[in-house]
Amino acid sequence: MSVASFNVDLNRFAKSMDIELETVVRKLAFEVYKGVTQKTPVDTGRAKANWMLGYGSINSTITNNTTFTLVHPPEGSGKRPIYITNNLPYISKLENGSSKQAPNGMVNLTMNEVQRSIRNVVR
Questions:
Q1: What SS3 class is residue 1?
Q2: Which residues, in sequence order, are CB contacts of 73 under 8 Å at separation 6+?
Q3: What are 42-53's pLDDT values in tens digits?
Q4: Domain that residue 8 falls in
Q5: Using CA of residue 30, residue 35, residue 36, residue 41, what is the dihedral sign?
Q6: Three-state DSSP class for residue 68
Q7: Total number of domains constituting the chain
């Protein structure tokens, strides 16, 4: 799905639910963030703890923490781009199936689930 068609789906979704697009963006960002972190394999916990949210700009933080806390995007954050990043050097290997815990990755699976959900609601 292209970015343009995803935007159209988001607009249709917001209209069908009679809610502001900003609210839809914020809630979808949270669903993607939650899905990606839930699918991230855990050995030490560092990969999971390094999923970061950025509002209006990319959060390039890398932490040595091994404990993950799920954070909701704050009100008003849907007006700016919301970035979900993980800057660990091995995160792309995990996404590409290097872990037996997540052989199909985390990000692509989550994005497919969210897009499918939006399509179903819009229909």
A1: coil
A2: 26, 29, 30, 33, 53, 55, 82
A3: 999 999 999 999
A4: 3-122
A5: positive
A6: coil
A7: 1
pTM above 0.85, yes or no: no
Q: What SS3 class is residue 15?
A: helix
CB 60 within 8 A of CB 87: yes
Place of tokens 């607009």: 11
Phi, psi of 3 (to 5 degrees): -60, -40
Q: Identify the pLDDT of residue 22.
A: 82
Mean pLDDT for the chain overall: 87
Question: By C-alpha distance, which of 106, 75, 77, 74 is closest to 90?
Answer: 106
Q: What pLDDT is stored for residue 123 in this prediction? A: 65
